[in-house]
Design brief:
Blueprint (H helix, E strand, L loop, with lengths): L1 E5 L3 H13 L3 E5 L2 H10 L4 E5 L7 H10 L6 E5 L4 H9 L4 E4 L4 H15 L6 E4 L2 E4 L4 E4 L2 E2 L4 H12 L7 H9 L9 H13 L4 E6 L3 E6 L1
Parallel strand pairs: 1-2, 1-3, 3-4, 4-5
Antiparallel strand pairs: 6-7, 7-8, 8-9, 10-11
Helix pairs in contact: 6-8
The protein binds calcium ion.
Calcium ion binds next to loops.
Length: 221
């Protein structure tokens, strides 16, 4: 499995290369987006790890460019931007997964393994959990093939939870995502949305767990 690592932080790049080489990946490291594009034309890779803050270009720009060239390799984004909008943007631009710095190398490794497993069964824009499917290309959420009966805001909340499946998402993060939609939120608005979403998704083998003081986790039942 050949990985192209596009990361200008040398310490992180060295650590990643070491860890991934130890688990059997062959890693080629580059620091600039332009050189990465050049290499991708010249050699075959199986997977890309892409830092969003590169010296010569924005990683999202590179991501768009690669996807517009129909390069369907799995791409894992690394970002120091602790901003859910960047992550959602990354996923909607065609990234398959992301890690926010700082992260544990072990976690990155586990997620890479999962990504490889997932992607080498076929490339997809669909995020699935239980019987729910989020199509990241148009943000529609289907349950057993039918559109879920949710308001735009409820749907946006569920979208965040699905994109971050397996992780606890704080109310602040959800509120940040919703603020994209305009109006200010009432104090208990998110609880109300979560309550409605819970009712709506109940038949579909998923549930939302509340972690008091921390946030919400969407999980398979
Ligand atoms: Ca960087």
């Amino acid at each position: 499995m050949k990985i192209l690592l596009i990361e200008d932080d040398q310490v992180l790049a060295d650590g990643l290369t070491q860890t991934l080489s130890n688990s059997g990946y062959s890693v080629t490291g580059v620091t600039h987006g332009a050189y990465a594009e050049h290499l991708l034309k010249a050699q075959g890779f199986d997977l890309i790890i892409l830092d969003l803050g590169l010296p010569d270009m924005d990683g999202l720009q590179l991501l768009r460019s690669l996807r517009s060239q129909k390069l369907l390799l799995p791409i894992m984004i690394l970002t120091a931007r602790d901003d859910i909008n960047d992550r959602i943007e990354g996923i909607s631009q065609g990234a398959d997964d992301y890690m926010t710095k700082p992260f544990e190398l072990r976690e990155l490794e586990a997620r890479l393994h999962a990504l490889v497993r997932r992607c080498y069964g076929g490339f997809t824009d669909i995020v699935e959990i239980g019987n729910l499917q989020l199509d990241t290309s148009n943000k529609q959420i289907l349950a057993k093939g039918e559109l879920l009966n949710l308001s735009a805001r409820e749907s946006a909340v569920l979208e965040v939870l699905m994109l971050q499946k397996g992780r606890v998402i704080s109310k602040d993060k959800i509120a940040q995502h919703l603020s994209l939609h305009g109006d200010a939120l009432a104090d208990n608005a998110i609880e109300v949305y979560i309550h409605r979403i819970r009712k709506c998704i109940q038949p579909y083998e998923v549930s939302i767990r509340t972690f008091r003081g921390l946030g919400y986790l969407l999980e398979d039942k």
